[in-house]
Amino acid sequence: MFKSVNIKRQLVKQRGKIFSEENVIDSYKNVLQQVDVENTATLNTLKSKSTALKNDFIFDELDTNAIFHISDIKKICIDYRLRFLDTVHFKETFPAEAIVKIKNLERVHDTKIGGFKIVAPMEIFKLKKADDPLLFAPMGNGYYYLIHQWGNDLHPLRKIKYWSVKNLENLVKALVYISLVFTILTYSFFFTKSTSFGHMLMLFMFFFKGAIGMVIILWGSLGKNFSEYSWQSQYDRIH
Fold first, then answer.
1. Last-in-domain residue among 155, 183, 213
2. Exposed e or buried b for every residue in 198-232, given b needs 16+ CB within 10 A?
3. Structure pTM?
4. What would the pLDDT profile of 133-154 be if each residue is shown by its tens digit?
5. Which terminal residue of the chain has fewer beta carbons within 10 Å of its beta carbon, N or C?
């Protein structure tokens, strides 16, 4: 009668033909040490200032859905008031998945990747708070390759929240809308007679000038800048 075959026993037997048990353990330790060294080297690259403007990727091995132009990145950063900065400014810990993806890319493309960039809210570059960071590597000619995304999704109303500080034009529009609302709500309180365009315009200008004054005082004292000018700045104030 034929005996059943225990696959594990056969594997142990096969391994024993090449390595002793001690050699297997030593080999495994060496692999772990090598992985630790590679991970540390990758983290050091992420945390170091880099002037690399491109990486030598093999185009056929890239995911075309992960390739973005700087104009696309700029538009999203301005809309959602995000920053596009070197990873050296990132305060949060990089997840293991990001390290693995970087190492896999380096292996597939036979290159050392550098010049990493992060798209994230400014708060992440000052505090340990992971809100939807995106890790990029430059490809040259204004193109970037998205390596990994992690953290929490942005609030769906963030775009609306920061719409008024995208640029000067949006801020003026916001002040006009606010002044109109206040004019409509308070007109009957200030003027009891029939509606007069002149009276409404006068009241509107009162609120509008007051709103401009408040913005100048608050915005100026805080030193804030519009999103279209600050999306690549590592500072939260005008420099």
1. 155
2. eebeebbeebbeebeeeeeeeeeeeeebbbbebbe
3. 0.72
4. 889 999 988 899 999 988 777 7
5. N
